[in-house]
Description:
The model is unreliable at about 1-5 (pLDDT under 50). The protein contains 11 helices and 7 strands. It has helices spanning about 10-20, 20-25, 25-30, 50-55, 70-75, 110-120, 140-150, 165-175, 195-205, 205-210, 215-230; strands spanning about 40-45, 60-65, 80-85, 95-100, 120-130, 180-190, 240-250. The two termini are about 30 Å apart.
Amino acid sequence: MAMTAHQTWSPEQYAQQARFVSDLGMPVVELLAPRAGERILDLGCGDGSLTKKLVELGCQVVGVDASPAMVTAAQALGLDARIMDGQSLPFEHEFDAVFSNAALHWMPQADIVIAGIWRSLKPGGRFVGECGGSGNTATVVHALTRALSTRGINVDTVNPWYFPTVEEYRHKLEVQGFVVSTIALMPRPTPLPGDLGGWLETFAQSFMAPVPMVERAAFLAEVAEWCRATLYDSYGQWTVDYVRLRFAATRPVSHT
Length: 256
């Protein structure tokens, strides 16, 4: 999770509002197919819950994240976790694989990120990940856009997210030299553990930043009301319209 100018992370809040992020990440681990003894970079490791699973499978894992609080939480699990911007990776031909779950969409400089991952990998190394893809949380983004617009704020100036199409991301990977073995968009409607307000306070801080503090409760209520007809059911359950982009690519051994 790369930290944007107005986005901070609380491990406690994350565990309460967003534990589903790592809980739903195991198919990405299975796509990675980690082997004991492999050296793996977990890019955007968060509080380390999936990093720990890779370690338990016998891998040597370095977790990096831009959030100091999340890195501290990961270190508390005994993990090798480091504060680092995913858009400035310093590694050179060090890893058998780079793994990333629910983090790449917080790193808008995608070409720079992919180049850093390429450098980090040994020849033959794998890049396997899942992130928000085109259409991810579209209902919420539309409501945020509308609520900001009524306040004279252009959403493009505060939106921290990058949700690529299959074609766009495949092109970026292939231009770098990766061979893409699988890439697909997958709708994944995701039930929330609480209400939409808690989700917004966890993930949408950048959108809230230009709204005066005294108006934020009204702003969040407005956004939730515009989402209610689509995302709230008669049983009182909020379900956000997630769309994930999942992929696996390889740095060829012979590429120069």
